[in-house]
Amino acid sequence: MGKNIVIIGSTGSIGVSTLEVISNNPGEYNVLGLSCNSNTDLLLKQIKRFNPRFVSVYSPGAKDELEHKLKKTKSSVRVYEGEEGNIAAASDKGADAVVVSVVGGIGLLPTLAAIEKKKKVCLANKETLVCAGDIVMGEAARKKVRIIPIDSEHSAIFQLLEGVKRAEVKRVIITASGGPFRGFSAAALEKVTPEQALKHPNWSMGAKITVDSATLMNKGLEVIEAMKLFGLELDKISVVVHPQSIIHSMIEMNDGSILAQMGYPDMRIPISYALSYPERLAVDYIKPFDFVKAGRLSFEEPDVKKFPCLALAYDAARRGGTMPAVLNAANESAVRDFLAGRIKFTDIPKFIKKAMDNHLKEFVAAPSLEDILAADARARAFSPKTSGRKGV
Ligand code: MG
Questions:
Q1: How many angstroms is it from 390 CA to the middle of ligand 1?
Q2: Which CATH class is domain 3-150?
Q3: pTM of the model as a whole
Q4: pLDDT of residue 199
């Protein structure tokens, strides 16, 4: 029969790879529902190929556009829209698992809706755990729902923790590629263009996460994601730069033993682990790993002076409460402004720091979901006058 899968964010990089895993494993999964922001051309192709029962589009106007295109087909797919559409898709009673692969804070409410209805959640959206990790994990525990991470580092840690006693784990070591600007001088970073930032050395990903990898904010968000997902204190997590992206993360045991999860950087591996968990699929489409060809694996300290976003994420993690949501929202705004050519690459951390400083007077230490959504909205509306081609 196969498991019924809903994908929130099916036209993005992870969504497309998830559909590839599904079509490469015939009989294992059915596509029940798909959702996207505004890419109705690709969504239409996915509808024709996978024949879902329902789809949802987020962007205003996209529903009309899609329905117009659907008129020329025989499809009887139901079309939802907006945030409500994502929530309806994520909580459909026919779904066995929901893959949340949208980028940004908009992943939060569909994730909570899926948990509420006791769906297995395959979570690629790290921002959800950064903004509201305590609430999301609390609800998941209450509903006895497993959240299986798709983020490669967290999939690695999840897999490693499956085989050990938690009390025997000393620390978690998250690897970082270092991004395309590792080793750049401060002067060179000032001149970085969106085109340069969008070229990641190892992983092929969407625009937002690729810029986050270049600023190291991605690693900062992943540290907070790991704290929430695995219930870890900040001082139990280390970050090491590993430019080859072969080791996806490690755990150090009390007896000094280090366990690592490895492989070529290929998102189909963590996606298929999340979909099939607690089983593993036997697949033949992943390139066999060649240690000799992989050659040297190297490691270095992350440079938080040149890449202050990582330090800002540590600050937000230490402070907790509403601060990580503000860090995340300000980062989303800053990355959007950088990609639009409105601010410089080096303005991104300055913009975020101002938003975080501005939030101190409104900070809530033990926030409700409403407090988090309000802090997120205020941080998005906050303009620290970083904008302008002249920079700060
Ligand atoms: Mg990652």
A1: 32
A2: alpha beta
A3: 0.93
A4: 83
